[in-house]
Amino acid sequence: MSDVKVVHAAGIELREQSADGLANAYAGATAKAYNATTIFYNPAGMIHLQGNQVASTNSYIMPKSSFSGTVTGAGLSGTPQGGPSGQFAPTAPVGAMYAFWDYSPDLKFGLAANTPFGLRTSYPDQWIGRYHALHSNITNFTFSPSVAYRVNEHFSVGASWQIGYFNAVLSQAINLPGLGLGRYDAHQSLNGNAVGFGGVIGFLYEFDQATRVGLNYRSRIRYDLHGWSTMSAPASLAAVSTTFQSSGVNVPITMPDKVALGFYHEFDPRWAVMASVEWTNWSVLKELNFHYNNGRADTVIQENWQNSWAFSVGATYTADDRAKFHIGFAYDQSAISSANMTARLPDANRYAITGGYSYKLTKNLQAIFAYGHLFFDHANISAQGTSAAGLLLGGYDTSANIVSIGLNMKL
């Protein structure tokens, strides 16, 4: 049995940027505009807000996954010695912070700090698939100054400039026994960082005070990672081959652009419903090209991710002037086909059932508590590595629990 880091959205996307968003399975996120967290989902939604305010969200992703399988054809060793994957990812926290300035009825400003993408997987050093992956850590932060302008009583537009930081740490074992080059494994670890820039543009159309539609486009961001490849191998091998030498490394990677459309409607002062459809351009992630500065031949890893769709519906019930109850359901299509599955991210189609409770602690302070459970389709893996890494063959069964706590405060 093993635990693997999973995320609410396809690929390595983290949708956990708002507690009331999770409570409704992110249905209508581009149209709800309940509080300052709309800066992330649709900056045009700031027009719907009144009064300066700040908001924060802390989410905790608690995954469970079981892997069963084997490795064959790993060089001279055939099936390598190794144990089960064990528990290779702990509970993962995700945070977000927002600030909103109500400059005038027709002009609003905001700031957002988010973690839109991320991944944590960490296998034991002696697991059977160690020649495919050991540790995979991806950390992504964005800082987004934002503005919204009301064009007329129905139509508003918003925009954000995204400043992003991206860090990736990837490691694996190298099968020296399978290559006939020694008795013990070597290890390679790559660590790279980059800054990238992108933008967001959003639109909000209010049919009346109870009904609105939001459309948001978030651009892709390219990160040109620069870092270091650390090789732990016998000095005798490093002396005769650049393959076994530590070196500077450059890796370009692009995070995808996406389009989200949301609908929100209040039937009466108590009941509101919402829905969303999202498209993410994951096909930009075709391959990872590792260029080494010591003359070693480039390592090219084929990814071949595919574009994905997500759908969600939700409802909110207002019990009184302080308390609200939220529910939601979502379907999220995987960005990775079975043919391109890897041990670093065993992705699959997922279904989410969520709920939450928001309560005004004071006139200006609201707390939100949300919970979601994710069900994943079974994920088959048939990953062919190098001749020494062999074929990793098996499957993953995954689920996850998510808890989110948010605070919204008017200043």
Structure description:
The chain is mainly beta and 411 residues long. The protein has 4 helices and 20 strands. It has a 14-stranded antiparallel β-barrel with strand order 1-2-3-5-6-7-8-11-12-15-16-17-18-20. Strand 5 and strand 6 (155-174) form a beta hairpin. The radius of gyration is 23 Å and the shape is elongated.
Number of helices: 4
| Principal-axis shape | elongated
Give me the side-by-side strand order of the main sheet.
1-2-3-5-6-7-8-11-12-15-16-17-18-20
Q: How much of the residues is beta strand, in percent?
A: over 45%
- Overall mean confidence score, pLDDT: 92
Distance between the termini: 48 Å
What portion of residues is helical? Answer: under 10%
Unreliable runs, pLDDT <50, ≥5 residues?
A: 1-6
Number of strands: 20
Q: Mind summarizing the main beta sheet?
A: 14 strands, antiparallel, barrel
Helix and strand content put the structural class at: mainly beta
Please give the oligomerization state of what you see: single chain
Order of helices and strands: HHEEEEEEHEEEHEEEEEEEEEEE
Q: C-alpha Rg, in Å?
A: 23 Å
Entry keywords:
411 residues, mainly beta, 14-stranded antiparallel barrel, 4 helices, disordered N terminus
Short synopsis of the structure:
The protein contains four helices and 20 strands. With 411 residues, it is mainly β.
